[in-house]
């Protein structure tokens, strides 16, 4: 097929008739293909610009507001109805090393078409397409089944991200309970909490989107496809419970970290107080007698100076021994 300069933004554009692929379609021929009976078009785009989206709008008859949102990206997860088509936004997540990268996938869903627009990081839908094409009976149910397949794929990709965040938490937790509280550990806990909040913000709306798809929009979602979205909602709820449990453990870990830091500071204060008590003995004695006498403490006794020094040293050693036994030093 021959595309114009937007070729790099078009991942795949295929027409399906009764669940069977009838070949790739150019953007200009989409409106003609949609005239065929029992046929729908599945178009995948990536980082589409306004010019390409303008062509897509003309071919599918999409609403200006939906096209504007797809151009701007940075949308919250949502579902909006425009006439006989739907505009859906989902956030995607990927774990790159220790960092969570987020992206967006926008859906334009109609009775005879599904258009996906990916922004930022988002896994390719080629495996989803291969999986759907291997099930022509299911694919014959129309673009509603394709929407389910991609949404399920996005939700499944949250799982390895959560596993990675759990591994990060285990490392930080080990550092805390090995009594190594540090600024880096606290920063790691806060970064993990932020990632969990962003991930929770991406996942929570999916349940509401699935519930709306199951209750309304029967003209776009066939009745036999509704049960699939219930499966996504159940999966999302399980993931949300996992995130909620991790957040509670994270808050507890932060409190334990602060408690250990307080205990460590108390240990330092105890040691300083112990050494202060030891130093108080010679300070008191030497300030009492001073250092400007020929013999101390009695002016006529020659051995009074070494006796006082020895007594101070002995008293300091005894106090050190007692404080050591008490755990202050």
Could you name the key traits of this structure?
329 residues; alpha+beta; Beta Polymerase, domain 2; Methane Monooxygenase Hydroxylase, Chain G, domain 1; seven-stranded mixed β-sheet; 10 helices; 57% helix; rod-shaped
CATH architecture of the domain at 1-140: 2-Layer Sandwich
User: Which residues form runs of ≥5 with pLDDT under 50?
Assistant: 1-5
Number of strands: 7
Task: Estimate the mean pLDDT confidence.
Answer: 81
Could you name the CATH class of the domain at 1-140? Alpha Beta
> What's the tally of helices?
10
Query: What level of helicity do the residues show?
Result: 55-70%
Concise synopsis of the structure shown:
The chain is an alpha+beta fold and 329 residues long.
Description:
The chain is of the alpha+beta class and 329 residues long. The protein has helices at residues 30-33, 50-60, 64-72, 126-133, 136-139, 143-156, 158-177, 183-215, 226-289, 304-325, and strands at residues 10-17, 20-24, 39-46, 78-82, 85-96, 99-110, 113-120. A hairpin with a 2-residue loop joins strand 6 (99-110) and strand 7. Mean pLDDT is 81; it is low at 1-5.
Secondary structure topology:
Blueprint: E1 10-17, E2 20-24, H1 30-33, E3 39-46, H2 50-60, H3 64-72, E4 78-82, E5 85-96, E6 99-110, E7 113-120, H4 126-133, H5 136-139, H6 143-156, H7 158-177, H8 183-215, H9 226-289, H10 304-325
Parallel strand pairs: 3-7
Antiparallel strand pairs: 1-2, 1-3, 4-5, 5-6, 6-7
Helix pairs in contact: 2-3, 6-9, 7-8, 7-9, 8-9, 9-10
């Amino acid at each position: 097929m021959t595309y114009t300069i937007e070729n790099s933004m078009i991942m795949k554009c295929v027409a399906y008739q009764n669940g069977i692929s009838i070949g790739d379609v150019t953007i200009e021929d989409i409106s003609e293909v949609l005239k065929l009976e029992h046929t729908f078009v599945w178009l995948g785009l990536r980082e589409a610009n306004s010019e390409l989206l303008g062509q897509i709008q003309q071919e599918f008859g999409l609403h200006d507001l939906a096209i504007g949102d797809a151009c701007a990206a940075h949308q919250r997860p949502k579902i909006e109805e425009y006439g006989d088509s739907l505009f859906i936004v989902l956030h995607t997540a990927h774990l790159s090393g220790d960092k969570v990268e987020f992206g967006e996938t926008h859906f334009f869903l109609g009775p005879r078409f599904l258009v996906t627009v990916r922004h930022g990081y988002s896994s390719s839908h080629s495996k989803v397409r291969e999986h759907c094409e291997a099930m022509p009976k299911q694919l014959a149910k129309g673009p509603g089944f394709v929407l389910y397949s991609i949404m399920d794929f996005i939700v499944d990709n949250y799982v390895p991200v959560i596993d990675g965040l759990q591994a990060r938490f285990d490392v930080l937790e080990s550092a805390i309970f090995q009594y190594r509280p540090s600024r880096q550990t606290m920063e790691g806990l806060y970064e993990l909490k932020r990632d969990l909040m962003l991930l929770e913000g991406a996942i929570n709306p999916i349940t509401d989107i699935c519930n709306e798809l199951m209750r309304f929009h029967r003209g776009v979602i066939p009745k036999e496809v509704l049960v699939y979205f219930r499966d996504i909602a159940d999966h999302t709820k399980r993931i949300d419970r996992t995130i909620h449990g991790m957040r509670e453990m994270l808050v507890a870990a932060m409190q334990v970290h602060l408690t250990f830091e307080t205990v460590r500071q108390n240990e330092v204060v105890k040691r300083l107080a112990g050494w202060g008590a030891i130093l108080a003995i010679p300070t008191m004695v030497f300030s009492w007698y001073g250092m400007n006498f020929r013999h101390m403490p009695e002016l006529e006794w020659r051995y009074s100076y070494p006796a006082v020094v020895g007594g101070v040293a002995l008293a300091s050693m005894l106090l050190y021994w007692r404080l050591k036994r008490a755990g202050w030093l």
